[in-house]
Write a structure and sequence with these properties.
Blueprint lengths: L3 H7 L5 E6 L5 H14 L5 E6 L16 E3 L4 H10 L2 E5 L10 H7 L3 E6 L10 E4 L6 H12 L8 H14 L10 H12 L4 H9 L4 H14 E4 L4 E6 L1 H6 L10 H6 L6 E7 L4 E7 L5 H8 L3 E2 L3 E6 L3 H11 L4 H4 L2
Parallel strand pairs: 1-2, 1-4, 2-3, 4-5, 5-6, 8-9
Antiparallel strand pairs: 7-8, 9-10, 10-12, 11-12
């Protein structure tokens, strides 16, 4: 692993840079990526943000969003940018498998890889690493990277502040998760002072539902929510037909699992969705219950202790059954 001081020296002159993040990017992934983009272009670098897949409409208003290249839509162009890059910033993921087919191109590129991330157990594919599992969001680490490593706080203009605020807001559950420390609030205050319009950002992300999305939410809570009182667990399950019925778009299921966790006494919430080629799971938990352990051990996934994800190649019903069969193993933790 190379010293970060040499990275600062490397960035002293204009470079060809690619910034990438995990597939199906969320607010932290896109917010941190565009935040870093809007910082680096001020220093004369030639920067491209390459996303493995598309992402929700409610994030596409972010400053310089049109500059993002979608790998699944432009694979040859994306691969060319990666191959020619001097530096590749890898944001908000800990494994090249998290960027799907783009991972092979990143691995083969001669460009130096810079990991900025807050997930557990990062794989050893990077040359530089700015990493902490204690950060509430990768956007927090990008802020600290700009201030402490690059020593360029003056580059945090309104565009950068807006993107980083969005990343921190979304990954901290609107500043309510335990990782929202006093330090995070100081950072948020600084971002607002630098131009981030907090109320407007919240409205654009959270108060921008389509009619279909709101009706889908009501359907899930009324018809698809199951509470397993014995295990202090709640789950919402959704089939492909149900997604099609409500014309669900990318990002429309974002945050759905959190509703199950708001039930009094629930320690573990699961959202299990049937997709085209696999079944996806999103787990949320409270306290010290290890949601990530279940995902890693049983569903080829991982994540944070209180927020994790996985997938299954079994049918929707088989996946639901397997999830329920796992719960007795964790009963002592769930009924504390």
């Amino acid at each position: 692993m190379l010293e970060l001081t040499s990275l600062k020296e490397l960035l002293a002159d204009p470079k060809q840079i690619v910034i990438t993040t995990h597939h199906k990017p969320d607010g932290d992934a896109i917010g941190s990526s565009l935040g870093l983009y809007n910082c680096l272009i001020q220093k004369g670098h030639h920067v491209k943000v390459v996303s493995p897949t598309d992402y929700p409409v409610f994030l596409q208003w972010l400053p310089n969003n049109p500059e993002v290249v979608i790998y699944t839509e432009k694979p040859e162009e994306s691969a060319k940018y990666v191959a020619e890059a001097d530096l590749i910033f890898c944001l908000d993921f800990n494994s090249l498998a998290r960027i799907n087919g783009l991972g092979q191109h990143v691995q083969e590129s001669k460009g130096k890889k810079v990991l900025i991330d807050h997930h557990l157990e990062p794989e050893d594919f990077d040359d530089y690493r700015y990493w902490s599992i204690n950060a509430c969001a990768t956007a927090q680490l990008v802020y600290e990277f700009i201030v402490n490593v690059l020593e360029e706080p003056q580059t945090i203009n309104k565009d950068v502040a807006t993107c980083l605020y969005t990343g921190i807001m979304t990954d901290s559950g609107s500043f309510r998760f335990p990782t929202t420390t006093p330090r995070v609030h100081h950072i948020i205050a600084d971002l607002i002072e630098r131009g981030a319009e907090n109320a407007k950002i919240h409205q654009l992300v959270y108060d921008n539902f389509s009619e279909n999305r709101l009706r889908f939410l009501g359907f899930c809570l009324l018809r698809k929510l199951e509470v397993l009182t014995e295990y202090n667990t709640a789950l919402i399950t959704v089939s492909r037909d149900e997604l099609h019925k409500f014309n669900i778009s990318t990002g429309d299921t974002e945050g759905l699992v959190n509703y199950a966790l708001t039930i009094n006494g629930i320690r573990l919430a699961a959202l299990i969705i049937e997709r085209a080629d696999q079944v996806k799971l999103s787990l949320r938990s409270t306290g010290d219950f290890p949601a990530n352990e279940i995902c890693k051990k049983y569903f080829n996934g991982g994540g944070h202790r209180n927020a994790a994800g996985g997938q299954s190649t079994e049918s929707l019903q088989e996946t639901i059954q397997r999830f329920k069969q796992i719960l007795p193993e964790y009963k002592s933790l769930l009924i504390q």
